[in-house]
Amino acid sequence: MNARRIATALSLTGREFLRRRGMIALMVGIPVFGFVVIFLALPQQPAALEAIENDVKVRVSLTQTELFGGLSVLTYVGLLAGVTGLYLMRSAMSADRRLMVAGYSPFELVSARVLLLLLIDAALSLFLVGLMLIFLTPRQLPAFVLAIYWAAVIYSFYGGLIGVLVRNELGGIIAVLFLANIDVGYLEIPGYSTVLDEWFAVLLPGFFPTQLAIDAAFTSRLEKLWPSLWSIPHAGAVAGFMLLGYQRATHIHAFLPEQRGRGRWRIAA
Fold it and tell me: Is 61 in a helix, a strand, or coil?
């Protein structure tokens, strides 16, 4: 691994992403529009949510605005981070082959993409939390920001993994949308989903970030901070599969001069 090559690949990838002004505008405009429209449509009724406080399951009384503000940001960050990861890895499939011919390894190229994703995830998390503050002030704001960042990192890696596995771009986008909406949009909400009582719930992408987000937003005592660190090995495992998929999809078959004719016959066959 060459640090200079990773820095060069990171610079090229960052410039490529910044040229996509339409995508950046959508990443900013969609949450703003969604927050405003849904906020205006919220009924003026009380709401409730299950949470853990002092190791006891409690039911927290909230307003619809507070419930919407605390949970919808997880859905938005999952959607936007997932689509960003999908886009970056799909663009890598077509653009990075030239760098591989120039001597770059798949690990160096994926490392550059991962570093850029981590930076974008941080900016996206701060932006969405800033929007959410209009509707809700979390009791533990730094921990809430961390929870949103964990969700962004995990979903951006899942988006990248889908990008290298699903060759059809529209199919990949639909897969990201379904994953985020089903997981953090429903399955992770305590009191609404029974999946959280199952042993395999910890394997869901948004389990630990959502637990920390609910804990930081609605309870007075922070209890889910250390368990949320399991988000790191989860994201690392997904990144490893993403690297393997990227290597397989961008593998360049080298034909020796004396084997070119044989290679052509194999392709024809």
Answer: strand
Tokens of 83: 């689509």
Q: What is the pTM of this model?
A: 0.86
- Angle (deg, nearest 10), helices 64-101 and 231-249: 40
Name the pLDDT band for 256 (thresholds 50, 70, 90).
very low
Distance CA 146, CA 140 (A): 10
**Count of Cβ atoms closer than 10 Å to residue 119 Cβ:** 13
Neighbours of 73 (CB within 10 A): 27
**What is the rounded CA–CA span in Å between residue 131 and residue 31?**
8
**Residue 164, both tokens:** 């290298």
With vertex at residue 49, the alpha carbon angle to CA 48 and CA 52, rounded to the nearest 5 degrees, is: 135
Distance between CA atoms of residues 203 and 234, nearest Å: 8
The mean pLDDT value for 115-126 works out to: 93
pLDDT higher than 60, residue 43: yes
Closest CA to 180 of 82, 72, 69, 90: 82
151 neighbors 82 (Cβ within 8 angstroms): no
For residue 214, which of 236, 238, 192 has the smallest C-alpha distance?
A: 192
Per-residue pLDDT of 129-161, as tens digits, reads 998 888 788 889 999 999 999 999 999 999 999
